[in-house]
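Researcher: Batch entry, complex prediction.
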Amino acid sequence: MSIDMAQFHQVFFEESFEGLDIMESGLLNLDMGDVDAEDINTIFRAAHSIKGGSGTFGFTAVSDFTHILETLLDEMRDGRRKVTQPAVNVLLGSVDCLREMLTAIQNESAVDNASVAEHKLALEIELKGGALLTSPHAEPAAIAKINTAISLNEQGWAITFCPHVDLLKTGNDPVRMFRELSTLGELEIIVDLRGLPDFYDYNPEECHLSWQLNLLGQVNIEAIEDIFDWVEGNCDMSIQSLADKAAKVAQLSAVDLVDDSVNPDEGVSPAIQLAAVETAKSTKEESKAAAKGSSSIRVDTSKIDTLINMVGELVITQSMLSLVGEHFELGKLDQLKSGLAQLERHTRELQESVMNIRMLPISFVFSRFPRLTHDLSTKLGKKIELKLVGENTEVDKTVVELISDPLVHLVRNSLDHGIEMPADRIAAGKPEMGTVTLEAYHRGGNIVIEVRDDGKGLDKHKLKTKAIEKGLIEKDAILTDKQIFELIFMPGFSTAEQVTDVSGRGVGMDVVRRNIQALGGNIELISELGKGSTIAIHLPLTLAILDGQSVAVGDETFIVPLGSIIESINVTDKMVNRVAGKGETFRLRGDYLPIVRMHEIFDVKSAKAEKLTDGLMVVVEGQGTRYGLFVDDLLGQQQVVIKSLEANYRRVEGVSGATILGDGSVALILDIPGLVRLSNQ
Amino acid sequence: MASILAVDDSASMRQMVSFTLKGAGYDVVEAVDGVDALSKAKTRKFDCVVTDVNMPNKDGISLIKDLRALPDYKFVPLLMLTTESGMDKKQQGKEAGATGWIVKPFNPDQLLKTIQKVLG
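Model: Structure tokens for the complex:
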């Protein structure tokens, strides 16, 4: 039977990469002082699965490599080998190597043999030398199989087979074994009933029979041993060549157990050429069918169950409604209304659960940082502890994919520039071990990801001087703290006195900010000299659906992201100030907020409210500052499906996308920070 | 056709085993670990169980031991899939009541042959 093994490859790759992640995080979590056997076992199990799978699917290079890795882990697991940091580093290196090998195989590209050989050598050195506590176990006396592979007996074999009483309880069946034997050659079976107890003592679950089997023909003894392999230890048996046996029988003719029919002169059947047929057909792994890394998503089964449940509800509601509709009369209006309300609720719930499927825990992103921290802190000679908080916070898959690179940049910055050298920390009266915290949490409709460090923080004066030097700001500019920290996100601004190969060369933070803005989020930095810095990224939970507030400006409807609205108020003349050259502001509880007149920005001619007191002021927050959006009226809140304006038309400043309203008309979704930029121009 | 319970924590191995055996007409049920397998084995009687050894929750050896203790599985062939070619694991398996083993790596043909051998 031929089975295309390639169809299992994708799953194998997926689980192998998962296994490697498990190994990696397991290795990073090992506490040298107090190694938990279960931790090692988890790592071992992952390696073991990869080895088993790769062997089965024909990736010999991978299974050979993993084999050495596994041996090392096995010795650690048994306590025969001490777990040391150098050994862990070698193991981590080989995890990387395996990942590269698997990626190469998956992409059908060439495996970097030099790198593999190097890691293999490192493993072997570790295996031979390393911190071996005792000499490795002598291999359990290699199964005493005399190498008789070639020595074929011309006549056949006499097999004495006396099973122990409990043989049947292992699920083995003598009849099955005899059937197999009979495929090797002509088989004579002589049963010996002498061990059978009295009928009344007889327990049918026990085996009291023994057999004398004569297998005639040119049979390889190994093939016979293979058949009895499973029952070794559950029986007494001997395999002799018939020729020898006949000779013995001739000598000791008194042995009556042996049937007389065994006569070397007769019954020698034509030799049946049979040796265990090697069926190991090389599986064609070059199969081009191997699916490439697809954009698949792993979904918690419970989420799917919820979805199915929801669809069930929907179907029930639908059938109820169609029943109402079939013979509709005015008396059924209430029924119709409640049905529609139910339909609305179910649709919303269904939508929520579907969206939920796209949600992944942020741990998908966070999981790479322990390794990054480990490697970098070793390289930099710093002592750094990474704390991960809120790893189970869920975010949209797209966000997970796109946030990774900016985050790496930020964490690297913290490790490289933020945390000081151990000596400097001690001198500053801080603990030697620096801490970098990665935290994710939900706030309103946003997810917030914070990168905090307790390092040296940013020097505001230095920042400002540097910005002046670089001509980014005027010499006499008066900046708030917030504005000073904003400088760091300006293009061409780098704070490190020396460019290191760790966190780049000053093209970083502006790119990071741009990436995050492209996701509809924003980033801010707070820092205190000597105490550390915090960078907070605010991102929308999902990129496909938005909670919006519809507002009317003349005949037009706009959608304001609900998350950015703080409140809506009517302004009075007393609240409004006009500042020469800087537009209008209004005072709200002591603060002066700039006013953005929507109808002016979008050139809506039909606006009903020209005077500020006639319309409504929607107070919104964008990039940490509050503004008042002046609109005619508030319409309603609803969830809107975001349609890209860029993909269908072109990018428009102040607008993040469009949506189709219930009545079929198109409404623009406002991009508050963009809108503010637009109004400042 | 005979029913087989295929137990392996590795999805690819499990699918491979299951696919191969289903292709040969067997009625195959999959289980992801020993605990899952044991609960499935209690709901119906399988004609054969093929299990991986190294698994979380409940490993293959312990599964075999527990299965063997069930009246329904007293004589049912219980096979282990093992990479350990040493006698170590096999011996443990045998003591637990395993019928036999299939040594990894194996190809579908080898698997099928063994199963056909056991189930006749």
